[in-house]
């Protein structure tokens, strides 16, 4: 860290805020949220598992399990450097766009599931109204999110 870097304890407090948000909003384990938070704010952007575990004060075993989950979900990318045996991890600039687009696609998929349920339940029954209520919400979200483009700013625009 350089003199202009924030205090390490304040950084860890922010990382914990990210972890709690991810836990509350997405059901991720806190350690996964801490990994995301750390990889969003760390310098350099690429970190070894050992460096991440040390920074967020996590065991190597829990880090490995959660890192696999985040890699599979597309949040984190693992790579190696020529001549080194260590794996390095980072969040690519397009990771958030990719993950959010997958979520939008899942909204549209569930909208289709509720439509099939409405066909099955028929019209006018309490269960049909419950299905319609869910369908309307997912339809609204899917339509809004597919119409509004994600940010297309490039690094040079920031």
Task: Give a verbal description of the structure.
This protein has 158 residues and is mainly alpha-helical. Helix content is 65%, strand content 6%. The chain has six helices and three strands; from the N terminus they run H-H-E-H-H-E-E-H-H. The chain has helices at 8-26, 30-41, 49-56, 60-73, 95-121, 126-147; strands at residues 47-48, 77-80, 87-90. Strands 1-3-2 form a three-stranded antiparallel sheet. Helix 1 (8-26) packs across helix 2 (30-41), helix 2 (30-41) packs across helix 3 (49-56) and helix 5 (95-121) packs antiparallel against helix 6. The longest helix is centred in the C-terminal third of the chain and has 27 residues, at 95-121. It is elongated and about 65 Å long. It starts with 7 loop residues before the first helix and ends in an 11-residue tail after the last helix. Residues 153-158 have low confidence and may be disordered.
Topology:
Layout (H helix, E strand, L loop, with lengths): L7 H19 L3 H12 L5 E2 H8 L3 H14 L3 E4 L6 E4 L4 H27 L4 H22 L11
Antiparallel strand pairs: 1-3, 2-3
Give a summary of the structure in a few sentences.
The protein is 65% helix and 6% strand.
What tags apply to this protein structure?
158 residues; mainly alpha; 3-stranded antiparallel sheet; elongated; disordered C terminus
**Low-confidence regions:** 153-158
- Number of E strands: 3
Total number of helices: 6
Q: Gyration radius, to the nearest Å?
A: 20 Å
N/C terminus separation: 22 Å
Largest β sheet strand count, sense and barrel closure: 3 strands, antiparallel
Alpha-beta content class:
mainly alpha
Helix content: 55-70%
Assembly classification: single chain
Rounded average pLDDT: 87
- What is the H/E string? HHEHHEEHH
Q: Strand percentage, roughly?
A: 5-15%
């Amino acid at each position: 860290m350089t003199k202009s870097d924030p205090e390490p304890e304040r950084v860890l407090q922010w990382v914990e805020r990210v972890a709690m948000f991810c836990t509350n909003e997405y059901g991720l384990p806190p350690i996964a949220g801490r990994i995301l938070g750390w990889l969003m704010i760390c310098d350099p952007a690429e970190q070894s598992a050992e460096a991440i575990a040390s920074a967020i004060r996590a065991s190597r075993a829990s880090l490995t399990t959660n890192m696999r989950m985040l890699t599979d979900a597309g949040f984190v990318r693992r790579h190696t450097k020529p001549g080194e045996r260590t794996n390095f991890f980072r969040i690519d600039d397009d990771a958030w766009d990719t993950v959010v687009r997958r979520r939008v696609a899942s909204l549209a998929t569930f909208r289709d599931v509720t439509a099939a349920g409405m066909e099955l339940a028929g019209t006018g029954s309490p269960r049909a109204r419950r299905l319609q209520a869910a369908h309307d919400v997912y339809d609204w979200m899917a339509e809004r999110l597919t119409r509004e483009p994600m940010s297309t700013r490039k690094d040079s625009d920031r």
